[in-house]
Structures are given as structure tokens and as C-alpha cells.
Amino acid sequence: MHDVVYYAAMIWMTGLLCVCFGLVIRTHSSIVRIVGFDAMSLVLISVLILFSITTESSYYLDAALLLALVSFVSTIAAARYHSERRVF
Amino acid sequence: MRPYVFDVLVIFGAVVMTLGVIGMIRLPDVYTKLHGASKSVFLGVVVLAVSGMAVGGEAMFSRLLLICLALLITTPVTSHVVGRAAFLQHERMSTAGAVDESGSILPANESPPWRV
Fold first, then answer.
1. How many domains does chain A have?
2. Which one, A18, A65, A68, B2, has least CB within 10 Å?
3. How many beta-carbon contacts under 8 Å exist across A and B?
């Protein structure tokens, strides 16, 4: 019963990931692309959390933590480069 | 009784994230898209992490707590930087009845007076 909920949530999150990817591809504004990439990384973190819950192994959570930190740095670099044409 | 509470938490997190993604698609403006992208999706991830904390063991608990703390620190910073970049690039508010309360509507091709 519980596994059904987690698998359904994982499939739903994968669908949300595809929807975010479609938003990133189809939009015309570049700053909306940055927002979409940020949301895509958050959805991917949730997929990793659900996968680690279903498999009962904590190793995927290390990947999720690193993905959170790397997406933070990449989003800030992309936004600063978009606004000022330089990162630092 | 207790495990069903965590299933309800997972469903709640999925619903909140879905609402955030729908808002990110449907809202007309980058400033309003940021609401859905930063707040709702972040809250959905936190609810899923709380459910995982309650279900999993100690190793999963500590790692999920670290993920929650990292997202809690980094998500407001990210949304602020993205909104600032949109403001510096003269993105217009296209919501009906939107008012720029900063009072400094930048003319095009002009840098703001403060240091960027």
C-alpha cells in the first residue's frame, strides 16, 4: 500500500520534470529559462528523495544534497551573468 | 494508523509541487512565476523530506535534515538574485493592475544608479 503511493508520486514527479523541461524549451524569455531550471533541479531533488525512500538506501540523498548546492551556484551564476554580463 | 499520515504527507507534497509548476506555467510575468518556482516547489520538497525523515532511519534523517537546511538557506537567495536580474534587465510587470512600488522605473538602456 505504501509502496504504491511512493511509486505513484515518483511517476508524477517525473511527469512534472518533463513539464518543467517543456517550459524551459518553449518559453521566449531567457530569465524564465533560469527560473525553470531552478524548479527542475528542485523537482529532481524530490525524485531522488522518493527513490531513496522506496529503495530504503540513503546513498541517493548525498546526490540530492550535492544537486541542491550545485543548482544554487549555477542559478546564481546564470542570473548574474544575465543581468550584468559578468559573474563576479 | 501512523504510516498513513506519511502517505498523506507525500500526496500533499506532490499536490503542492504540482500547483507550483502550474503557477510557473500559467502566471504571466517573471516576477509572479518566481512565486511558484521558489515558494511552492520548495515547500513541496520540504514536505516530502519530512515524510522521508519519519519513515527512514537515522542516516536518512540526517541527510534529509541537511537537504532541508541547504534549501532553506539557498532558495530565498536564488529567488532574490533572479528577481534582481529581471529588474535590472527592464522586465515589465504584465500582471493586471501591477504597480512598481520601488519608484525607480528604469528607462531602457540605462544602468541603475547603485553599484551592481
1. 1
2. B2
3. 140
- What is d(CA A2, CA B90) in angstroms, rounded to the nearest whole number? 49
Q: Which residues in A lie closer than 8 A to residue B33 (C-beta atoms)?
A: 32, 35
For residues A45 and A63, the answer to whether their CB atoms sit within 8 Å is: no
Structural domain for A55, as ranges: 2-82
**Euclidean distance between CA atoms A24 and A13, whole angstroms:** 16
CA distance B24 to B15: 14
Question: ipTM strictly over 0.90?
Answer: no
3-62 of A, contacting B, C-beta below 8 A: 5-6, 9, 12-13, 16, 19-20, 23, 29, 31-32, 34-36, 38-39, 42-43, 45-46, 49-50, 52-53, 56, 58, 61-62
pLDDT in tens, B84-108: 898 888 777 887 877 777 665 556 5
Helix residue ranges per DSSP H, chain A: 2-26, 30-55, 59-84
Residue A48 resides in a domain:
yes
User: Which H or E element spans position B3?
Assistant: helix B2-26
For residue range A41-69, what is the model confidence (pLDDT) as tens digits?
A: 999 999 999 999 988 888 999 999 999 99
Q: A6-37, pLDDT tens digit by residue?
A: 899 999 999 999 999 999 999 888 999 999 99
